[in-house]
Amino acid sequence: MRLVSATVYALRIPFLAAVRHSLAGRRWSDAVVVRVLDSDGVEGFGEAAPRPYVTGETPADVLEHVAGVLWPAIRGLAAPDLRGPDDLGAIDAAVPDGAPLRRHHAARAAVELAVVDWALRRRRASAALLLPPLRTEVVYGGLITADSPQQASRQARWARLAGLTQVKIKVGVGEDLARVKAVRDVLPDVTLRVDANGAWTPTAAREALAGLAGYRVASVEQPLPPGSPETLARLRAESPIPLVLDESVVTPADLEAHLAAGAADAINVRVSKCGGFARAATMARRAAAAGLEIHVGSHVGETAILSAAGRHLAAGVAPTRFVEGSYGTLLLAEDVSDDGVRFGHRGVAPVLTRPGWGPRVRVDRLRRYAETVVELAA
Amino acid sequence: MNLRAHLEELFEAQTAELVASEPFRALETGGAAAADYDRFVAAVVRTHLKATEYVAFLCALGAPESSESRLRNLLEELHHPGLLRQMAAGTGLGDRLPELEAQAADDIRRLVVEPVLYRTLGEVGLAAFCEVVAFEYMLARLAGRIAVFLAARRGLGPAALRWWTEHAEVDVQHAAEGLADLETYARYYGLANEDGLAIAPLTLRENVFLRRYFPDWPLPAGSAAPEAAPCVS
Predict the structure, then answer these.
(1) ipTM computed for the complex
(2) Mind telling me how many Å the CA of B206 is from chain A's nearest CA?
(3) pLDDT digits (tens, 9 = 90+) for A24-43
(4) Residues ≥6 apart with Cβ < 8 Å to B215
(5) CB spacing of A19 vs B231 below 8 angstroms
(6) Taking the model in full, what pTM does it have?
(7) Both A120 and A138 in a single domain?
């Protein structure tokens, strides 16, 4: 009943439409999936969404760190006895950090998710027991990419068809106000947020915030590049719109520094960015206790595995104001599971109840879309 | 642009993309292995084996003024599963038929249990209608050509090819009627507007022909929506 092998798949799943924001554009998912297997043949799956501009990781870094550091540390591991929320700490302890910490968050998340999935599948228990759901369904928002106002208008019509009640618009690439106006024209009653991905200078941010206020924008995410919490705090003090921090808040230490400076109204918590489910949940709780709103975010191109973990997180933390992700086959040419995790009309998706994270992953799909496969044995 | 012109443009683009695709060209030029032809035939059988059910669904939803042509289409569709089984048997895939039947049934099951993105059955129907007519449009243009290469390269006889040859003969009319019925449907349910225009590209955001006929062929990343072309990773 101990872990005997692992396989790491560096994927390249094409998108059905390209996605662009101020830091990057992508046409495919470069998720890295980790599959662990025990001596009874029980498996578990985890996923990393490596982003050089968030945690400094590339897919190659994840492969190297999993193969060289994380797998040697967990091979032979007996399944942790996961029974409830108090075991989140045990999960954290089961998977080592590696150093420097931030650089390996996505890799660590993939291994942590795989170990938890495996341990729960052994008991045929759902991840919901780790973070009991506070709601029966999760409501997702849509995403408008950083393209032309015409393209934004087209995407907004799709959001209208899907009945979405909240939409996030990528800004920071020029034509920002025109893009927001184009979306607002199509979606007069929908909650709009914007995300600059750190593209603005303080001066540009002040100008943008003043212009955006006229479009009833609910929040502005990561207006400045990660760096000085004090600079962000000064911007927040002058901003007519609440500020959300994402790339600035990757580690618990980042969170404390920004809380101390009063730099944020909300934080965006993402499982891969934060180094795993347990840490994302802990950071969300800490931020909530400090009076911040929680946005449960996703990385563009997440497959069903990270989407499912994000669903459990979004269902179990409060106050969750906005949730992103679970686009599934709305974005991916094919997902790694046939158990659909994508949301339906109005962005609604149920809490997942199957064993582990929920989706039954298809190894044949992983093989089909894998650019690199690394087999790791005991 | 009106809905019909918009749809024709989409269907044309997807048909051209299918013809230009690597696996299609390999089959047509004889560059493919025998197993590739068999995989192609199996995928076609799986794709269309339940087409009668889809057409019946659309019959139930259809606008009154097009009900006659939709019912006629349904009647013609009734014997197609038999022709598909004939094609499978003629390709030597007879023993795989139970598996293909199960896969085709599972495709419908997954479609039914997946969360619905749209707000009304009318919109769901428009999306389904777009996909069905897309296939009619493509088959009207390519069925004869595919029959030719399956005969020449894989040695299939007339009985095994009858599903293709029938489509080559009648689908020009089907496709024209289908487009007209689709337009009537959209008008009848008040969807011949911006929302209707948005449903079609959302439904056909991936190449449905490549997805269904070559399911094992990973779509190249470059096939993402062309309007987002400035995007680089």
Answers:
(1) 0.77
(2) 6
(3) 777 888 999 999 999 999 99
(4) B43
(5) yes
(6) 0.89
(7) no
